[in-house]
Each structure stands twice: as structure tokens, then as C-alpha cells.
Amino acid sequence: MTTSTTSEPPAAAPLLDLQSLVVAVRRRRRLWCSMALLGLLLGVALAVLMPPPPSAVTKVLVAHEEDQPSDTGTLIRTDVEVLGTTRIAGKALRSLRSRDHARRTEKPEDFLQDYRGTGVTNNLLRIDVTADSDAAAVARAKALADAFVADHVRRMRESAKAESKALLDQRDRMRNELSKVNKAIGDRSPESGPKSSASIESLFARRAELNSRIADFDLRAAEARTGTPQLVAGTQIVDAPRAVRHSLPRTAATNAAIGLVLGLVIGLALAAVGAVVAGRPVLRREIAANLGASVIAELRRVPRRPVWPWQRRQTRAARERLTATLARTVRGSAEPVSLLELGCAHSTSVIALNVARALAAEGQVVVIDGLPGPQLANAGRKPEDPTVVSGERAASVPRQVRRLGVGSVAPGTAWTDLQYLGSQTVLVVRAGHGTAAWLHTVARQLADQRIPVIGVVLVDPDPRDRTDGTLWDGPHTALRGHHERLARQNPPGRPRPERPSVPVARIPDSDQEAR
């Protein structure tokens, strides 16, 4: 029975993989935790080393002639701007100098930097002042409040006086016109005709209108003069100047919280940008896809902090499972196998010795050390461990002795020397170490050297990674060199053994880990 499948075009890769980004940021938690801690310490240091200067506060109730319930705060904002003028600052300084609370050389422009006004409500103004001491701050706040109240009252009185004078001037003009009308009425003779009677009636009507307008102007002028005392009495200091007490623990806690949040945000942003720019795969499926080989085992990172006994047992059990898996893989291969590391030379050395010890029970095993450094020599070897020879002495090892090569595919690797370590390889890769471009380079170079990749051992994977590290679209993407060797082993004229067709299975990421 032949099963036919319709090949579907691969889905386009997303421009930004959020899952990979989240994992990459979580793996760089040292960065953003350090930034958050640095922000916290800087906030505390700022509160301790740069305490706020002595300050005082006072509140002034400001009455406006144009007060309306629908006012949006325009009048109080105007008062805030008036408070920040050199006229108010100069009056306050003159008052302070008269009481010896100000330096003789201090300018109003400099004094403006030491205080600010804030509109609390439509009629309430708060004045905050800083100085060299609490007493000086209180004195400056009192002088500023008095200067502002005096200036506001003066402006209200001048405005009322100007309005009253304008109304009285209008009244005087109306009186002059009324005098002319009265004179015109007195000059009329009583023996006039009908036309003269109509003219006299119009003059009487005009006189009545002028009398009414004169009375109106008198009333409005009186109201203008009457309203000024109300505004003057309504503008006053309602909260006496007092020194503001600063709590060092509260300030330090506030600054620490702000620094912690800012540092955390900056750290997360740097980690995210670094993860996107670096392009280092961290998920199993990404590493498998970039290397063209399936992940066959994982090795958790050794914790740096003390662990509980059951955690040590879990780590030991995981290492034993990894050793058994690799030993079974090497044992089932008819050709020498090598372990090639990328970013985990020490872990690879330990894995190689454990696998060699497991294989030593079945016969002699020689470990060929092709690592650039002394990692294998410092991997805690025992006297009864298998023999370790350098890469230069690999040719002297008898062919009947099982060989296990250990090398590296880090940048700077001599690719042509890898075939002497083994004709097949298992890649031991630390998650998040190599870039996607370098993983592609490793897969291409191994294929060019005709070294098939049996599988990938992932070191330090993300513990929450639930992606599948198995390639489901066939072995041709992973073992290009293997297929080239099959082509060499089947010369022209000899029938090539048929392989059963395997349908392409595409499944979404599941919550079950692939081992």
C-alpha cells in the first residue's frame, strides 16, 4: 500500500518570534536583575548622599473678581506665573533684606530658582521655597506670600479705581448733556405751536433717559468701589509658612522603588534588544532547525547555589540517562563517533569520559582529545579511566580499538581535522551560545566534510521550553553528508536500495518534551 501525501509549502517564519524573545530575555535575567539592583542602590545612594534641601510651604487663598464656577483654572495659572516674576521676587527680597534674612548681593533672577508656585484649586495657591536652613526657608515663604498678597490687592484696587473712574467720567458726561437739555427746555416759550410741542416732548424724554443713565452709572461706580474690600479681605494667607520635614527612610524607599522600576525596565529593554540583535537560538526547535539535526538528549545546567538532596539525585539521574543514551548511540554505530562541542568544552569533556567509562566494560576504549584547551585533562580523570591521547597521536590508535573523539566546532576550528576524530558526530551545543549564522556554518562544514550528525545534545536548555527538537520533515536536511556517502557506496550500474516513503508529518508545538 502506497501512501501519497501532498507537500505543503513551509509557513513563512515570523519577523519576530515572541516565544523565542521571551525565553532569551528570561535567560538573560542576570542582566536585568543586575540593572534593577543597580537602580535600587543608586536610588538609595541618591537619597543618602543628596538629601533634599531645607524647604518651607505656605498656602494663599486668592480671590478674583472674574471668579466663575466653570473656570478651568486659567486665573490661578495666571497667579502662578505672576508669582514667578522678578517683581514679586524683588519685593520679597527687599522685605527679607530689611529683616536681615537675605544676602545683599542676591538678585531676583537667582531667587526665582529657589521657589515655585502650584495651583491647588481655582483659588488656592501653594508656595514651596528652599533655603539653606529651615528658618530661612520659613522667612522666605512668608515674604513671598506677603509680597504676592500685597501685589494682588494693589492690582485689584487699581482695577476697581480705574473702573470706578471710567464710570464716573461717563456719569459726568451724561450730566453735562442733561444740563444742556434742561437749558433747551427752559428756553422754550410756552406759546409754541404743534411742532414746538413735539420737540419739547422729545427733550423731556431725553432728560428722563439721561437721569436714568446717570443713576445707573452712580450705582455701578458704587458697586465697583464696594467690591474691592471683599476681594482684599478674601485674599489672605490661609496656611502659615512652616518647614517641611523630610524623612530619610521614606525618601530612600521612594527613590529605591523608582530606581528599581527604572533599572528593571532598562534591563529588560537591553536584554530584548540584545537578544534580537544577537540572533542566538535558544529553543530546541530553532537549534535543531539551524543545525539540521534532532535533539536527542538534554543536560541541565549545574546550579551555582546549594541544592537540596533530591535535586542532586535528579541531576545525577539526568547525567546517567545522558550517558546511557550516548553510549547506546556509540555502541550501535559501526564507525567511530566524535563529540563536538560548541560553547561547553568542560561539559563535553565530562560527558566523553562518562561515555568512555560506560563503554570500557565491553572492551578497550581510547578517547582522542581534539579540544583546543586542557578541558579534558582537567575533567576529573581517575587512574582507571580510559586512555586519552591527543589528536596528533590519533593515527597510532589500532583500528580494532574503539575510539571516541572529542573536538570543537567553535570559531577558528580546523574543519579538515574533524574527520580524524570520527566519521560520525554528536554535537554538544549550549543553548543561546552560537548565532543562527554560525550554526548554519557548522552544519554546512560538517556536511562538506561528509561527517553526518547523529544528533544534538543540548546543554543548559530553558527549563520551560516545550518546543519539539525533532526534525519531522525527513533525514535529508540533517544528514546531507550521509546521503553523499550512500551515493559513493552505490556506484553507477548497481541498483540503489529503495527506501520506504515516509509521509511528511507537521505537528504544532506541544507541551510534551521530546527526548
Please provide a written account of the structure:
- With 515 residues, the protein is an alpha/beta fold.
- It folds into three domains: 18-51 and 249-276, no CATH class; 55-245, Bacterial polysaccharide co-polymerase-like; 281-489, Rossmann fold (3-Layer(aba) Sandwich).
- 49% of the residues lie in helices and 13% in strands.
- It is built from 13 helices and eleven strands.
- The strands form two sheets. It has a seven-stranded parallel β-sheet, with helices on both faces.
- Strand 10, helix 12 (436-448) and strand 11 form a beta-alpha-beta unit.
- Helix 10 crosses helix 11 (345-360).
- Residues 1-9 and 474-515 have low confidence and may be disordered.
- It is found in: Cell membrane.
- It comes from Streptomyces iconiensis.
- Residues 157-184 form a coiled coil.
- The chain crosses the membrane at residues 31-50, 256-278.
